[in-house]
User: Which sequence fits this backbone?
């Protein structure tokens, strides 16, 4: 009998919070079920395997179906069971076990059960559960009696369930009544933050932020960028050459996380052509009937981190005008720059110079919008930097059109309304050149217009904030001290104290 062999990854960094949580879980003197989930390429497997590499582990991994729109079927279930039996035969060092007739997960667990009981400690690890179970609750339902009758009494047993389909896992596993009130722990793995990215990539803030704004903090994506001549050149080489990683990844994302369902793809493609979309606009664009199914699809895409609700400061999340937008950095980059030139990529037009595939004028402008989105998404970071993270606040972008009372329209990148009667108006600049004093004048104009548009805050104290990627903090503060109350630079954004 042998264990699944795991090799130590000396490049493994970060995940301190998750490792601490896993250490606390395994220290309990009881059987436990740990559910680890997150989008494709986020590093779930690496986290699990590096943490448990010194343990006795049996890993059973789901194999991706060839079906485009995956549907539960007896043939698919049999395929997954047969593959798991082959693995079991290797662990038991008995090839004949692979020929065992086994037509249900119940029969498979019956084979495992007596062996598990004999082992004092072990990790039973089910990887890519969405494929292993074929997006069905059948796997969990058939495992439940074994957990109830036997495994939950085995203090040395840890069951790890891992998958790349967040919506499926939250609905069918975490929320499933079959495991309700049992020893189940949940880890929803997120992207690397900037500090983790810096440690992983071993590059300066400029290149790390470029990676963040184009592909996000996805470890597998960052591997490709950190090993190139520069992040920019590696991005182009992996996006604008035929069959390159980022030119093909879009399709794999939908198959892995969302069953390959065409409606998911249609929603994202609509939002790629339109910066924002209301629920009704999306419904008409993807030609869906009225009802609850669209809400389910939108929620699934949100849970995967592909889209988000764009909520301006003056609108609530329940407003009929609430809008959706793409939140995933890679998908933003793909649809903006890769998808439009895909025929030219396939023809090998950029073979000798991949950087020619990128429209630089459009790319620079896009980085500005991406940095604004990143700042709004990480509003809590700036609250920490400015020292009011323990004060209740609401925040978001703010915009208003020209009206009878308002002679001109305006937009604020990010504003905070604090419970202690303060308003912070933030100007966000992703710049590669010094910031002129005209920016400060524009911000003051926005403060005045905000007071007219939002009269309930007219008597609040107003402060202005410049968030920029360019310049040294002290020099900027001295230069803009008459215009901005606070200046936030890379020095603050990459400071590990705030993460």
Assistant:
């Amino acid at each position: 009998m042998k264990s699944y062999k795991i090799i130590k990854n000396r490049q493994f960094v970060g995940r301190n919070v998750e490792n601490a949580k896993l250490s606390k879980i395994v220290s309990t003197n009881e059987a436990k079920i740990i559910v680890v989930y997150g989008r494709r390429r986020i590093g779930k497997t690496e986290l699990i395997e590096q943490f448990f590499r010194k343990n006795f582990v049996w890993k059973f991994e789901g194999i991706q179906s060839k079906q485009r729109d995956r549907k539960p079927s007896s043939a698919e279930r049999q395929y997954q069971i047969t593959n798991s039996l082959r693995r079991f035969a290797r662990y038991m060092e008995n090839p004949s076990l692979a020929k065992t007739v086994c037509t249900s997960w119940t029969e498979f667990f019956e084979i495992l059960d007596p062996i598990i009981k004999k082992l004092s400690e072990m990790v039973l690890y089910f990887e890519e559960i969405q494929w292993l179970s074929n997006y069905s609750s059948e796997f969990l339902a058939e495992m439940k009696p074994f957990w109830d009758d036997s495994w939950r009494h085995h203090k040395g047993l840890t069951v790890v369930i891992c998958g790349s389909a967040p919506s499926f896992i939250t609905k069918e596993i975490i929320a499933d009544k079959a495991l309700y009130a049992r020893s189940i722990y949940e880890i929803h793995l997120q992207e690397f933050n900037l500090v983790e990215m810096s440690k992983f990539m071993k590059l300066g803030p400029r290149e790390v932020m470029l990676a963040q704004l184009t592909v996000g903090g996805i470890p597998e994506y960052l591997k490709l960028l950190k090993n190139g001549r520069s992040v920019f050149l590696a991005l182009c080489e992996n996006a604008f050459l035929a069959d390159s990683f980022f030119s093909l990844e879009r399709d794999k994302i939908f198959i892995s996380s969302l069953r390959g369902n065409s409606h998911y793809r249609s929603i994202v493609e609509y939002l790629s052509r339109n910066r924002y979309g209301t629920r009704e606009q999306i419904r008409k664009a993807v030609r869906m009937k009225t009802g609850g199914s669209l809400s389910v699809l939108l929620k699934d895409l949100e849970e995967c981190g592909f889209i988000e609700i764009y909520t301006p400061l003056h609108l609530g999340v329940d407003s009929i005008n609430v809008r959706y937008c793409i939140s995933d950095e890679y998908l933003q980059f793909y649809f903006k720059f890769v998808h439009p030139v895909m025929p030219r990529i396939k023809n090998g037009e950029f073979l000798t110079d991949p950087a020619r595939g990128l429209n630089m004028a459009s790319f620079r402008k896009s980085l500005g919008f991406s940095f604004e989105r990143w700042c709004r998404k990480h509003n809590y970071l700036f609250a920490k930097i400015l020292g009011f993270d323990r004060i209740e606040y609401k925040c978001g972008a703010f915009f208003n059109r020209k009206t009878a009372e308002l002679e001109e329209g305006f937009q604020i990148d990010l504003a905070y309304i604090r419970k202690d009667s303060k308003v912070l108006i933030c100007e966000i600049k992703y710049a590669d050149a010094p910031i002129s004093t005209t920016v400060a004048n524009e911000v003051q104009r926005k403060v005045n217009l905000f007071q007219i548009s939002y009269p309930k805050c007219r008597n609040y104290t107003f402060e202005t904030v410049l968030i920029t990627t360019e310049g040294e903090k002290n020099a900027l503060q001295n230069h803009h001290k008459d215009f901005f109350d606070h200046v936030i630079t890379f020095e603050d954004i990459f400071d590990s104290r705030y993460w």
